[in-house]
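Lab notebook, bench 4. The sequencing result for the construct came back, and we need a structural model before the next group meeting so we can plan mutations. Quick request posted to the team channel:

Model the 3D structure of this chain.
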Amino acid sequence: MEEIFDSSGPKHLEGIVDWKNADHRRSVTASLVQGVYVLETDRQRKMTISKNPINYAQPWWVSFNFQLHKYLTKDDGCIFGAIYEYINGKCPAPADSNVPRYVIAFRGTLILRLRDLKLNLKFFINELKESHRSQLAMRCVENFVDSNGSSNVWLAGHSLGSAIALIVGRNMMLKKNCSLEAYLFNPPYASLHMENFCTSMDEDVKHLVRTVRGIIKKALAIAVEARINP
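Done. Here's the predicted structure in token form:
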């Protein structure tokens, strides 16, 4: 099972993590992102199983000397992100500039969650920034950086979570003029305004690009609506 750390976690990090090694840093942050996925599946399991369900999430961060500081939820209780705090132990001290004090991680899409699918639609029509989830993530990170400093905070995300992390990072650059170290896994392809890439593009071609993008948006909207009202 992908959610079980002992069978799916990074085998090459069973010893001490070398935080100066970029591959080690990516493996640890990927595990923290996976921890967010498993937090949500653990939560769902508790809602459907009455007798002490196993919690699989904790090993994904404890194994690398992190503790769960806080998780980020929506109104329905859905967990889409988590803040992890590094604690002293086998790994180097946080004074090492290669070691994050906090990692804020965002998961990607869970296929059976309708809200996640709707957010995918918002991404493809360039409206993810306005979503409640993105706004909540931006406020959380902004407050956290104000309290702890930008050098102490890393971002991480997978798929849709990568898109949210990118939005958050850009927001911090624009509002606070600070850049956060980020680890992004499998970021989705952005629905870009292609006609802006070439100022000399023929107006007929620009119109065609806009028309095709409009058709794609409508098709995606119909697909989501069909899933909501089968």
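Residues 109 and 116 are 5 Å apart (CA to CA).
Will bring this to the meeting.
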